[in-house]
């Protein structure tokens, strides 16, 4: 196997590791929201425990990227690909942290009765998961147009977040006894809104990798 062939095999392996991490992050987001909706203490604890795995994957992928840069001195498109992986892995790790925050909220609220059935927050989580799937597919397919669509989906998230904010605010004004729990739910909605922001970052880096252009998808 020649050096360049080995380089591209390692690059492909690196991308597979990134996708595996993306899958675990998607699961963490889904499980954390489910744990909150069902006030499932066991599931919330699993999300928190699995975060160490995401942290380890981030370090491993970063180290492999840096080793490739040091040993292979990639140029142009290959260098942009490695740089994109380095940026994406950071965004994925932070998404995992937000899932942990949501899981911790589920633990705080376990044993309580929710002040309202959770419909919009789970919907926010579903949109975030859909966006992550789009972002990872755009990366794999080198599809800048698909990555660009994340801007519209992020607008959907922002609108839904604003709706959740208004509804919880009205609830708190009408019944001050709901303030503590409503505030916790606002933090959850904010965490999911930030997850979506990290996914738009993934889209921006994918566009940069493909075109060499920098675009802001989170206006």
UniProtKB/TrEMBL annotation:
The keyword Metal-binding does not apply. Pfam families: PhoU. GO terms for cellular component: cytoplasm. It is found in: Cytoplasm. GO terms for biological process: intracellular phosphate ion homeostasis; negative regulation of phosphate metabolic process; phosphate ion transport. InterPro entries: PhoU, PhoU-like_sf, PhoU_dom. Residues 19-105, 121-206 form the PhoU domain. Keywords: Cytoplasm, Phosphate transport, Transport. PANTHER family: PHOSPHATE-SPECIFIC TRANSPORT SYSTEM ACCESSORY PROTEIN PHOU (PTHR42930). Plays a role in the regulation of phosphate uptake. Homodimer. Belongs to the PhoU family. NCBIfam families: phoU_full. This is Phosphate-specific transport system accessory protein PhoU. It comes from Kyrpidia spormannii.
